[in-house]
Specification:
The protein has helices at 2-16, 73-88, 109-115, 160-166, 168-186, 229-235, 247-257, 307-316, and strands at residues 21-25, 33-35, 44-48, 51-52, 66-70, 94-105, 120-124, 128-132, 135-140, 143-146, 149-154, 190-203, 210-220, 244-245, 268-272, 277-281, 285-289, 292-301. The protein has 323 residues and is of the alpha+beta class. It has one domain: 4-Layer Sandwich (Anthranilate synthase), CATH 3.60.120.10. The model has no long low-confidence stretch (mean pLDDT 91).
């Protein structure tokens, strides 16, 4: 908690002086970091819209091996059933349940960073690589935006777009997250509105092509928002799209039921340039655990969820986005 307070204060002071910086915050916000944009590439690399600290090097690696060993369905089902019990008890009505998958591949985390194509790419050297499609929040000229992403389908299925947009379970889940994010933004902003509801993004991968469903929510920040940039970011954590609702109780249930540590997975990374901010949720994530690669993935569980389809969705998300 002391480190969190230190980093929050540092972000506020940098914002007050309109200094630029990068930030990395883990799921439980116990190991947050702030990075100087000019002197960071030895520890962390990033490439996000409009910002990059990646050196101009050529990487000729090719992804020739990709073997996935997810947890067994029986193991997944045990955790899934515990989540459903908590839903039926009224403790949560949407919970993002995740599990680890062991990956065997011929390439390194750094190779994957260079090979992957994503809106947000982050490499914490020798620790993890992330190629995230999901924005956490953006701040542009005093307005804050969030783009919650909920709903995934194989893009190559016939009528995939129609199927995902008409799926009642996916609609209920997306409604819940949009409502949660709207409430979260209302803690730091005024005039919060849903500008665009349930639109599709296509993601091409080494495994299969996907459609994912997002919405766009915005609000107006106070005039002095830059000097409170740390307070704003930490007030919104953890990201609602990767926890569930109600958030506080759902995070407690996640900790009890997942039986592993998320670490930086489902945390956030972002850049503040002195006025504007862009950040992402750390999903589509591979972690190095003593030389073994672990891909962490999952999905939202509601009272309408079925274990076999949720297990399949978890596995669908184990990919590298290579066009």
């Amino acid at each position: 908690m002391k480190r969190q307070e230190t980093i929050l204060h540092e972000m506020n002071q940098l914002g007050k002086r309109r200094n630029s910086f990068a930030f990395l915050i883990d799921f439980q916000a116990t190991k947050p970091h702030v990075f100087d944009l000019a002197h960071s590439s030895e520890k962390i690399l990033w490439q996000i819209p409009g910002h990059s600290n990646v050196p101009s090097v050529q990487n000729s690696a090719k992804l020739n091996k990709w073997k996935m060993s997810p947890v067994s369905f029986e193991t997944y089902e045990k955790g899934f059933n515990l989540v459903k019990q908590r839903i039926y008890s009224g403790d949560t009505y949407l919970l993002n349940f995740t599990q680890p998958t062991i990956i065997e591949t011929n390439v390194s985390l750094e190779d994957i960073f260079y090979l992957s194509e994503a809106r947000y790419k982050i490499l914490l050297k020798n620790k993890f690589v992330c190629f995230s499609p999901e924005t956490f929040v953006k701040i542009e000229k005093g307005k804050i935006f969030s783009f919650p992403m909920k709903g995934t389908i194989d893009a190559d299925i016939e009528n995939a777009e129609k199927i995902i947009l008409n799926d009642s379970k996916e609609l209920a889940e997306h409604n819940t997250i949009v409502d949660l994010i709207r409430n979260d933004l209302s803690m730091v902003a005024e005039n919060v509105v849903v500008e665009k509801f349930r639109y599709l993004d296509r993601i091409d991968t080494n495994h299969k092509n996907l459609f994912q469903v997002s919405s766009r929510i915005s609000g107006d920040l106070p005039e002095n928002y830059t000097e409170n940039i740390g307070n704003i970011i930490f007030a919104l954590l953890p990201a609602g799209s990767v926890t569930g609702a109600p958030k506080k109780k759902t995070v407690e249930i996640i900790t009890e039921n997942e039986k592993y540590k998320r670490g930086y997975y489902t945390g956030i990374f972002g850049i503040f340039d002195g006025e504007n901010l862009d950040s992402c949720v750390l999903i589509r994530y591979i972690e190095n655990q003593q030389g073994q690669f672990i891909y962490k993935s999952g999905g939202g569980i509601t009272f309408m969820s079925e274990a076999d389809s949720e297990y399949d969705e978890m596995i669908k998300k184990v990919y590298v986005p290579i066009a």
